Amino acid sequence: MNTLRNKQMEPMSAVGITFTDLQFTVALKDGRYLTIPLWWYPRLERATRAERKNWKLLGSGVVIQRPDLDEFIEVNHLVHGCKSAELKDPVPVC
Predict the structure, then answer these.
(1) Are 38 and 45 in contact (CB under 8 A)?
(2) Number of neighbouring beta carbons within 10 Å of residue 57
(3) Is residue 60 part of a domain?
(4) Domain for residue 86, yes or no?
(5) Distance between CA atoms of 57 and 9, rounded to whole angstroms?
(6) What number is the average pLDDT over the span 3-23?
């Protein structure tokens, strides 16, 4: 039995974000949660708590905008485990 749908996947969208001192969690529209270490996104890691709290969802939740940090994060990139292109890490970014 094939349980996968054989159609093009729609972009993932977020409905909310929460932060701790070490990570952030993105609530997805489909009910799942993604938890990402802050060090994957250096601007977020260096940000103050107030700057982290200031976020907007754009395009029905497909992009997370960080106005204070001049940063945009695509939710699909998070789903696929992509890190910030600013990260100097031997593990490739998407």
Answers:
(1) yes
(2) 17
(3) yes
(4) no
(5) 20
(6) 81
The CATH number of whichever domain residue 36 belongs to comes to: 3.30.2020.40
Q: What pTM does this model have?
A: 0.83
Spatial separation of the C-alpha atoms in residues 51 and 69, rounded to whole Å = 7
CB environment 60-92: b (16+ within 10 A), e (fewer): ebbbbbbeebebebbbbbbbeebbbeeeeeeee
What tens digit of pLDDT does each residue of 38-79 get?
999 999 999 999 999 999 999 999 999 999 999 999 999 999
Pair of tokens at residue 2: 């094939």
d(CA 31, CA 54): 23
